[in-house]
Design a protein that fits this description.
CATH architecture of the largest domain: 3-Layer(aba) Sandwich
Strand content: 25-35%
Strand order of the largest sheet: 2-1-17-16-14-3-12-13-15
CATH topology of the largest domain: QueA-like
Structural class: alpha/beta
Helix content: 10-25%
Number of strands: 17
Distance between the termini: 24 Å
Radius of gyration: 20 Å
CATH superfamily of the largest domain: QueA-like
Length: 340
């Protein structure tokens, strides 16, 4: 297995720059792993493929306004800071854009807040310390960070949030969940389909390509996630009753499979609260996820490797080729896939 096995060509015209309206009008490619069959639907048709008693699992993380603009205090040079993960009350690991941002340099953020570069990490990564806790100020001084392949201005920042976004902490949205609307949720509920939520705070590392020749040599990023006792109980009950667990997004898959490791006797899954560095590659044996709702992922990313582990690499690469032939839109604001 080589990283190049997960590469594919994607002309820029396929990269969605804006979300569709309404959310559930996106295309839905349905891939049946058993028959290899592919069907082309609208996302609003999702209920045709989910049965009463099935359980949808959503990531309720919320994207924080993690992009900060400022200037170097001594020279006035422009600086951009992107929050990645919090170390303590004042210190954060960040990505920086700007010249000469070495240890000891100080930056003044829009709104008057100041920050000092504490240490230089790999590439544009830094650890910075703010002079005040920044979280309460983000709604006023921060900007919503969009992935680097989106160049259009987002007129409504809430379109980069799911309708169930409830736990602030992500630098990116769990994009498979962006397609759900209140009306669709009501329709699914009326059909006897149940829902639970979990939380995984997404870092921008999730978009980064694997650069090593062999995926096994790649050190995957760590992300914090949580599965509550109530959610774990509902999942165990669903499986006991013969229902399917349908993970909405690769972040839900990663959390669920991490929680399955700590399950006790008679359980399929147990509550989980902590970081995960689970790297799911072809050959991985899934514990209990029965289906995945997902978007179309970047070449050579850990995400395309995860869905390839679930459906088979050849089936995924074939589905991506067919999606391009049918003018599907790719990446964060793109169309969706249901893998059964």
């Amino acid at each position: 297995m080589k990283t190049s096995d997960f590469d594919y060509e994607l002309p820029e015209r396929f990269i969605a720059q804006t979300p569709v309206e309404p959310r559930d009008s996106a295309k839905l490619l349905v891939l049946d792993r058993q028959s290899d069959g592919i069907r082309h639907q609208k996302f609003r048709d999702l209920g045709n493929f989910i049965l009463p008693g099935d359980l949808l699992v959503f990531n309720e993380t919320r994207v924080i306004r993690a992009r900060l603009l400022g200037k170097k205090i001594l020279t006035g040079g422009k600086v951009e800071i992107l929050l990645l993960r919090q170390h303590d009350e004042l210190a954060w690991e960040v990505l920086v854009k700007g010249k000469g941002l070495i240890s000891g340099k100080r930056v003044r953020i829009e709104g008057g807040l100041e920050a000092e570069i504490l240490s230089v990490l790999e590439g544009p990564r830094r650890v910075v310390r703010f002079d005040l806790p920044i979280e309460p100020m983000l709604d006023n001084i921060g900007h919503v960070p969009l992935p680097p392949y989106i160049h259009s201005v987002l007129s409504d920042p809430e379109r980069y949030q799911t309708i169930f976004a409830n736990q602030p902490g992500s630098a990116a949205a769990p994009t498979a969940g962006l397609h759900f609307t209140p009306a669709l949720m009501e329709e699914l509920s009326n059909k006897g389909i149940r829902f639970v939520t979990l939380t995984l705070h997404i870092g921008l590392d999730t978009f980064g390509p694997v650069k090593e020749e062999s995926p096994q040599d790649h050190k995957i990023h760590s992300e914090w996630c949580q599965l509550s006792s109530a959610a774990a109980e509902e999942i165990n009950l669903t499986k006991a009753r013969g229902g399917r667990i349908i993970a909405v997004g690769t972040t839900s898959v990663r959390t669920l499979e991490s929680a399955a490791v700590s399950a006790g006797e008679g359980q399929i899954i147990a509550p989980y609260d902590g970081s995960t560095n689970l790297f799911i590659l072809p050959g991985y044996e899934f514990k209990f996820v029965d289906a995945i709702v997902t978007n179309f992922h970047l070449p050579k990313s850990t995400l395309i490797m995860l869905v390839s582990a679930f459906a088979g690499r050849h089936k995924i690469m074939s589905a991506y080729r067919i999606a391009k032939e049918n003018n599907y839109r790719f990446y964060s604001f793109g169309d969706a896939m249901l893998i059964l």
